[in-house]
Amino acid sequence: MPYKLLKFGFGREFNESRYFEDVQTPKKTYDVVIIGGGGHGLAAAYYLAKEHGITNVAVLERGYIGGGNTGRNTTIVRSNYLTPEGVKFYDASVKLFEGLSEELDLNMFYSTRGHFTLAHTDSSMRTMRWRAEVNKHVGVDSRVVGRDEIAKACPQMDLDCSGHAAIKGALYHNPGSVARHDAVAWGYARGAANLGVDIIQMTEVQDIDVRNGKVHGVQTSKGYISTGKVLSAVAGFTPRITKMVDIKTPITIHPLQACVTEPMKPWLDTIIVSGSLHVYVSQSSRGELVMGSSLDPYELHSTRSSFDFVEGLTSHIVDMFPFLSNVKVVRQWAGMADLTPDFAPIMGKTEIEGFYLDAGWGTWGFKATPISGKTMAATIANDKAHDLIHSFRLSRFEDYELTGEKGAASVGH
């Protein structure tokens, strides 16, 4: 252990400053109140202050920052989506991620690995070609590869998957990366606080004051706050917030589970995803295998995890990597995925004046953290949807103008 760390651990005085001020009591009035202290809410607060000069902002979090889906995901960053709207949006996020460590002066452990989406059937290969062409058209580095290139990148994999679902090829996405999720949340929190934003933890929003179709304030567990603008960025808790303003959305909530193994020497240099086997896996900087599966098939507002999940997931992992049969799973968890019918998010203004929505992220919210914050901040500041999120507006469900991203979900749902 480094001497400096020992000295810090046993020292009686700590000279390092706090990441941000621990605000206990909200002010009576804010220009903007953001509900949700995850990556999206904190990023929106940061960009409101940095790019639009709006610093009288409160971020309200019922627990602790990053304690929701931001801290419960598998940290994959990519932009190999199916629709031009989705590819452009997530590509903008990848570009922000690439400079985020320098932007926030905090190591995000951002690591570009390359991302293989495996195809086990002819129909899957057709979808991979479709996605590759859309990606190339938008300028994103994705291409279809065969078994030989997969074997070269990951020689440990059984390409026949123990005879259960032989791999025919894959969509290879060179910019595919991983990042440290906790660092993203804390980096945006510190950046926002340094610019004057109040981050108030352990504070629950109990109601939103709407009169004559306009937001006037929020009632919290720490009292009433007057404000004319409210952003909801609460992922799986979205139905509880939209109920307060009497807005209906097509969002359903499903548990999404994941787990990690005991650490091992580095061997998996890339990110592997299989929609047919419902698995995705990468190796962390600490040597753990970070593994996830598809959404649980039932709607449930819960973060409980199950033995059925880990049993099914690991059986498919062993199909691809038989040598892992004796590796131990040491931790598993779940998040609440807010899913829309077209597998694209809901972002922007709503029918209630002053109420903005950032929701419907399903399994891909973490990778959108920087660009969602940037575009929602611009939308709030200008009271007009940013060009990148026009296709994600809530009204698209009434207008029958859906943005169909189901074919680009991380795993089959």
Automatic annotation (TrEMBL):
<keyword id="KW-0560">Oxidoreductase</keyword>
<dbReference type="GO" id="GO:0016491">
    <property type="term" value="F:oxidoreductase activity"/>
</dbReference>
<dbReference type="InterPro" id="IPR001763">
    <property type="entry name" value="Rhodanese-like_dom"/>
</dbReference>
<feature type="domain" description="Rhodanese">
    <location>
        <begin position="32"/>
        <end position="76"/>
    </location>
</feature>
<dbReference type="Pfam" id="PF01266">
    <property type="entry name" value="DAO"/>
</dbReference>
<dbReference type="InterPro" id="IPR006076">
    <property type="entry name" value="FAD-dep_OxRdtase"/>
</dbReference>
<dbReference type="GO" id="GO:0005737">
    <property type="term" value="C:cytoplasm"/>
</dbReference>
<dbReference type="InterPro" id="IPR036188">
    <property type="entry name" value="FAD/NAD-bd_sf"/>
</dbReference>
<protein>
    <recommendedName>
        <fullName>Rhodanese domain-containing protein</fullName>
    </recommendedName>
</protein>
